[in-house]
Amino acid sequence: MVLCGLLRHRGNSRHASKATDLACHDSTGRVCRKATCFRVAACRRARDGVTYLDCAPRRPYNARTVRPVGGCDGDEEGRRRYEPTRIHAARARGEQPHGLRPSAGQRAGRFSMSHFRFVHAADLHLDTPFSGIGRAAPHVSEALRDASLDSFDALTTLAIAREAEFLLIAGDIYDGPERGIRAQIRFRRGLERLAAAGIRAVLVHGNHDPMDGWSAMAEGWPPGVTLLGSTGVTAVSIERDGRRLATIHGMSYPRRDVTENLVRRFRRGTESGVHIGLLHCNVGSNAEHAAYSPCTVEDLRATGMDYWALGHIHRREILCDGGPWIVYPGNTQGRSPKPSERGAKGALVVEVADGAVQGVEFAALDQVRFIESGIGVSGSGDISGVVRAASAVAAELQSEHAGRGLIVTGVLRGDLDGRGLRGEDAPDGLRCHLARPEVQEGILQELRHEWSGARPFVWWQAIQDCTRVEINPDAVRGRGDFAAELLAICDRLECDPGAIAELIEVQSEPLRRVLASPLVRDAELHADPVTLLAAARTLALNLLESDELK
User: Fold this and answer.
1) Alpha-carbon distance 387 to 89, whole Å?
2) Residue 55 near residue 402 (C-beta atoms within 8 A)
3) What would the 3-class secondary structure string for 54-65 be?
4) End-of-domain residue from the set 340, 366, 392
5) What is the pTM of this model?
6) Residue 122: domain span
7) What is the number of domains present in the chain?
């Protein structure tokens, strides 16, 4: 069963494309030096047709410009000294001072009338409670409380810094229909900041924050902000100097449970410019999220839109990169250790030229990042060696994800001495010790203590044991038991590649359960059939030798 499941997966797997690291550049190709508003932590990477820019805000921001409060020195006196000098020097060079929105006439000198960019974000979940964290240290809990709000601040900074024409938010601005006051005030301030910079914002609500939820916005929205209603699809025109750049078509949720395929209400008009659909929906029945406004890629294509700015799915994903573009930016801040919440979170900067979308660029905005990282412990002789290996990994993660708090799940991996299993020897093998929950908890507490002073913080969320027993196949073959028979089957398959291919073809759905084993490694799943067979053999023997097969 184990052998067949692994081989079946090999038949359906796809190799992930490799990332290529590049220098961080702005839209003109110059090296990015926007130190006043961003800390560039991991520059650009090109992968799957998307450019990645990893940025994080350095300090709190003034509502009117993108410079940090207090100027370059962090105090009011420093701001007074620095700001006029910076603006004068920039203008003397014939440049627009960074952080000040250029006028339409100024932008026309840099961009053609058909060239502009916008920012696409979704699933802000402002003031969201984090789940799956347990009792964290006070400084970690404090950072988590503000993380979603600080990520929104970084979003508005991004839109201003990249001179976006407009910001699109595709639903779930808030985490629930009650919409806490703190979240609503922070959101309004961010929109006011965009309005002061001349950037429009177009919003829709999703299943978490439907239109029937409570709102504290009795005064209405700031200038340039458009909330699309829930009675039908509304079209909004974006113009520059009287010329239409884009038409945005969108619709909010009237209530939480929307099971209608809302995409069928959308149709492209005859207006010039790029046509963009803005919607919170589930394309292709993604099992990780509820089937709100379920639709298909074919439904989206049939509308005639040029770009679909979607929300609801928290994994960043490009379903189509043209004809039309169909894109989920993911959420702006991870919320738990779940797979869909891990890794960099942020928004997309979309470039448009000559009436067509030219590409998208991911900008990381998250303040706290959830990471699952493998920890190789094959060379560790004892528990203290495991702790050292884990600490070395944490140091690498801190460098790789600079400027952000990290919540880390460590996965122990390696082939270890299995003495003590099944009562055959004294219980002194490292693999036997690591299998005990109290030992894993002890490792976790030691790592938390060791990293308690790290800033930004590194919080060890959990330690998982996915080590495997180091087994001598020759010794097993001579035992004459079930494990020996299993090895004989593997030996025959190794000599017959055709039989391996047939095994891949004929296996069925129940085998997916086997593939969920944490002992199966990603690299092995993407290997050639013979290597995969060896991995399947190792997994089967580990389950048998550890008495874990149920």
Assistant:
1) 52
2) no
3) EEECCCCECCCC
4) 366
5) 0.72
6) 58-65+100-366
7) 2
